[in-house]
Design a protein that fits this description.
Length: about 425
Amino acid sequence: MHVVVIGAGVVGLSSAWYLARQGMQVTLVDRHAEVARETSFANGGQLSYSYVAPLADPSVIGKLPQWLLRSDSPLRFRPRLDPAQWRWCLSFLRACNGSQVKRTIGEMLGLSFLSRDLLDDLLAEHPLEFGLQRTGKLVVYRDADALANAGPMVEWQRELGAEQQVLDRQACLELEPALQDVASQLSGGIYTPGEATADCRQFCEGLLGLLRQMPNVSIRLETDVQALVERNRRVVAVKTAQGELEGDAFVIAAGMHSVSLLKPLGIALPLYGLRGYSLHVPLGPNDIKPVLSVTDAGRKVVYAPMGQHLRIAAMVDMGVDRAEVDPARIRLLKQQVAETFPNLDLSAAQIWAGVRPSTANSKPIIGRAGHFDNLWLNVGQGALGFTLALGSGQLLASQLAGAPPSIAPWPFAPA
């Protein structure tokens, strides 16, 4: 069987890898000259296997008014005359209930733990270099009530296999001395020792190198897919500027571009783009930097050590189409970083913005698309694309090949 995979970000590359391992003939197509040019390029860099709580949460409801009205809010909303935006927002509000959140976390943990195990298997066979550091993750809270409210979820996730513990302020500082400048502002934190950080773009380039070595894989970069060609309820080819590319099955893993590709076929993907920002900060010998992966819970800022660099990512902008850098948001991010790590030199920081393809309940969509028996989806991983990519790719490949899946596929099946 010849499978055409559209999209060479971390999810598309992972899909191609596991399809090829199943013995399929795989053609990977992307419009860019290099892989990982969009959302996978400079994301937060956290492999957050035990911390997969959805953005939609009951606690969010009370915060929405101040988040939407304040200029320094971690979430900024720009209302538009766009029915897709309002449908997504309504679905998001419906997802903000306790029972659904617990169910979603349980399902997401199954997928994230699968990804963690697959990464270990991959590296045992192919020791890729992509800056992997098994740092552990510390989520710090400035608000005591927010920390107390997080406690019951920690206990429940521990029952599902997530190794987490609630720490007081002093224990946080002992684990992460770099937080000393904000010690008086901290109430405590949640520590997850099994988490890691790494460079997603370098990981994608490593996967590409492995794929190029496989005789059953063809790589077609700088090939813009303009449309899907349908005949008799089957996709028979993709239309590109270089002509039509035929296949027996087609996998859509093209981030937000997936929405416009599928719309002419009558498939309305429930994805919305949430723009985020990152700083890639070179570290000098005297910089006081975190040794753990640190998340500032109140400000929604993550700090991921990457060797001689620190990746800092933050913010959600709703109602924007393009991955453009908003100077005001970067100024705010730099101000917040300087307040937390005042000795960190940000003058040479590389600035990036990307649009995360997100579902309202934060669960990815993995499986066969609608009534098309040869069209498959692997989209909607949102801010957890790096974390969930390998599990998503293997789950997709096993279904397409008719092999027994490692976890139950139905929680992620297209509606």
